[in-house]
Each structure stands twice: as C-alpha cells, then as structure tokens.
Design a protein that fits this description.
The chain is of the alpha+beta class. It contains 3 helices and 7 strands.
Length: about 180
Amino acid sequence: MLTDSDRVQVDRLRSVPFASASMSLPASAAQAFSILERPGHLEPFHPFCQENTALAWDDSERRDRIVYLNGLRLDRQFVRWTPDEGFELLIGGSAEKRSLVTWMLRDDSSVSSTITITVRPYIYAGKTRVTNATLHALWIRPRLNAYLTSVVNGLNRYLETGERVARNAWGSHPWFSR
C-alpha cells in the first residue's frame, strides 16, 4: 500500500535528473505488457537479474524483489499500474533510498511498439543543481544508460526468440554484475 510518505517521495523524484533508454519491440504494447505483468517478469529477459520474486502481486498491491548477479537485493514497489501501457515503481534497498523508475509502452502499429524505461535516481534528492549536473553527466547517466539499454535489448531479444537472455548478454555492468 502506498503511504503519504511514498507519494511525497515520488513527487520529489519527478524533478531530479534522469536517464532513459527506448527501443522498438517486435510486439504490440499489449503483447509486451503480457510479459511485464507476470510475477517474476524480469527473470527471462533482464541480463543482470539473478532472481525476481513477487512479494505481493494482485490488483491492490504489486511489490517484488530483484537480486542482481552480484548479490545486490533491491525491493520494487509499484506506484502506478496501467495495463497495456506501463507502470511506475520505487526501487531501493531502504525506504529512504529509493529511485523512481517508469516503464512506458506505446504502440507503433498492430505488431510493434516502443518501450521507454526512465530512472530518476534518489541520489540527486537534496543536492544542489551544480552537484547534480556534474554527477549526472560524468558518472550516473553513462552507467544508467548502459544498464537500461541492456534491459530493453533483453526484452526485445526475449520477444523475438522466446528464449531466456544470457546473463551479461551485452557486457558486464560495474553496479550489477559479478
């Protein structure tokens, strides 16, 4: 269940710098969403995911946990859920250190769609604009973009082949790989 504190956190994170990746998918938004709405949906396509376990997964509440290849465990609390279009979630190891992530699908035709994943990192909250701009440009954005590109590549490959994506399929990542 979302608390007032969760809502305040989401609103605060909407104004911080972000990184995103988009890709055309060989499936309609509804077809792609049919993968994303499953409990544990990250396991077949996320190249840095060791395990994705649903903690609560019904219409009233969606929460899960991702364990990355390096053992890092982060909890995800879904704050908005729109069937066939996408969702928004808070992800982090603690309630105070959660980032805002948006997964959006848009139909391009009856057989293709575009996915965009956007991350607004918690690390920017409360810092000055100059600090954020420097940190974002030199350190955070390049690594987040590489990570997000690997995730959307994984979803694309899974939709094309139906086969589980190999770990570190597009290279290892310093934050999430062993």
